[in-house]
């Protein structure tokens, strides 16, 4: 956790808080992100996941924007690799894309909830990132765009897979084919974000309160709810029910269960062992 990263900063909300802020940290280029982000991001998420002090992660951007998208200066270099025959070149590029995808999916692999706090621009890669977060909030002046189509890219890091489940198929198709910009208020109307805050300060404070609320809940039930919901999104109801039955057969009988109901009866704040 002490390690320094080129594209990210980690800050514990306050001493003893289970809320950790993970901040995209390239403000001079509007938090545009290149290859080093994709190497650092899964490592940091894994470290946060393994750290028992961490209950909830809040992902935000430093400076004026959440994320201005892929770093356009490194985009050409990422795709420019044509040594060897066509088949080998394509296979290498496929592996590279899978590596980039895997970095974004690291948020879903992380057992702890990841909340996106979005201000300013959230474009292209930014949408791939926030759609893999568990909950999203934004400021009124946030600007979103599924921008890839304008750069002659079929979005390939998760937006086209996750956005339809969040806003509905038709809306996802419209936003992805037009690449049009939309506001924080429209993001709320679409269901992309759960709530819009008037300013960046209100966003920070509001998200901190929500994150601390989740962080105070029984940890096994929080990680179970995230894992089961993500699984249920990807399978049918019968398979989802089977998964939660297996999950709870091994995770339901915990000290958290007794503590949660005792605290409720005794009208006191519960305390749970960390995960
Ligand atoms: C395998 C492929 C995987 C993923 C592909 C993803 C596709 C995408 O992400 S598509 C989206 C790409 N992004 C863009 O097209 C955004 C372009 N930028 C903008 O629209 C604006 O810069 C802005 C982000 C809305 C910010 O506007 P503003 O606040 O007015 O500041 P600026 O003066 O415009 O920018 C400040 C500074 O940031 C640099 N910058 C912004 N975006 C990028 C970017 N995507 N890549 C590189 N650099 C970026 C901008 O150049 C400025 O830097 P200077 O040094 O001052 O020029």
From TrEMBL:
<dbReference type="GO" id="GO:0051750">
    <property type="term" value="F:delta(3,5)-delta(2,4)-dienoyl-CoA isomerase activity"/>
</dbReference>
<dbReference type="InterPro" id="IPR014748">
    <property type="entry name" value="Enoyl-CoA_hydra_C"/>
</dbReference>
<protein>
    <recommendedName>
        <fullName>Enoyl-CoA hydratase</fullName>
    </recommendedName>
</protein>
<keyword id="KW-0413">Isomerase</keyword>
<comment type="pathway">
    <text>Lipid metabolism; fatty acid beta-oxidation.</text>
</comment>
<dbReference type="GO" id="GO:0006635">
    <property type="term" value="P:fatty acid beta-oxidation"/>
</dbReference>
<dbReference type="GO" id="GO:0005777">
    <property type="term" value="C:peroxisome"/>
</dbReference>
<keyword id="KW-0276">Fatty acid metabolism</keyword>
<comment type="similarity">
    <text>Belongs to the enoyl-CoA hydratase/isomerase family.</text>
</comment>
<dbReference type="InterPro" id="IPR029045">
    <property type="entry name" value="ClpP/crotonase-like_dom_sf"/>
</dbReference>
<keyword id="KW-0443">Lipid metabolism</keyword>
<dbReference type="Pfam" id="PF00378">
    <property type="entry name" value="ECH_1"/>
</dbReference>
<keyword id="KW-0576">Peroxisome</keyword>
<keyword id="KW-0007">Acetylation</keyword>
<dbReference type="InterPro" id="IPR001753">
    <property type="entry name" value="Enoyl-CoA_hydra/iso"/>
</dbReference>
<dbReference type="InterPro" id="IPR045002">
    <property type="entry name" value="Ech1-like"/>
</dbReference>
